[in-house]
Amino acid sequence: MNDSEDIWKSLDLHRHEVLNALQLIRAYGQLGKTESQLAQVDRLAEWIHSLSLWNREWIKHSKHCLLLVMTDRRIHLSNVDTVDSMSAEDSRVLAAFLSGLTQLLSVIEWTSVHLAIVHRSVGEPWQIYLDGSSGSILHIERLRDLCVAHSTRNVTFLMRIESNAQTGG
Q1: Interval 51-56 mean pLDDT
Q2: Which pLDDT band holds residue 32 (cuts at 50, 70, 90)?
């Protein structure tokens, strides 16, 4: 598959995600569940804002990162430093991590994972923080393994997990 086909496939999946969210909003409205409806609107708006950040910061460096987050509305970019100094290799590391994250999210029940991408100074690694929560220690361990597997000298993945985790699978 070439780059153009990848982009169109991702745009189609993105459209599908938006249409699913709009269907939920309509259903909540018909059921009179205003709080659920507004929560869904907020999640959709946050995700679309996140995609704008991804697009503005990453399209020049790694369209693969953008394509991955376009297809999973649970991945949000909440903060990003300018990425002009990120190397092609660092972008590939991030894309591989995001690919693993989307696969992990397909089997766990997190509603969202927020990423903050920080580059403190020249010579320091990129730090990529993940904020999430889980009902399972196993899920946290799997995410930790994913972070360790993709951390390099130039890119460090760090986790901040809400403390509502329970024991069990």
Answers
A1: 68
A2: very high
Element (H, E) at 76: strand 75-80
Instruction: Please check the confidence at residue 165 and state whether its pLDDT lies above 60.
Output: no
What is the DSSP secondary-structure string of 101-166? HHHHHTTS--S-EEEEEEE-STTSPEEEEEEE--S-HHHHHHHHHHHHHH--SSEEEEEEE-S---
CB–CB of 155/126 below 8 Å? yes
Burial class (CB in 10 A: 0-12, 13-18, 19+), 79: exposed
What single letter denotes the amino acid at residue 115?
Answer: L
Spatial distance between the Cα atoms of 137 and 17, rounded to a whole number of angstroms: 28
Q: Chain-wide mean pLDDT for the chain?
A: 75
Answer yes or no: is pLDDT of 167 > 50.
no
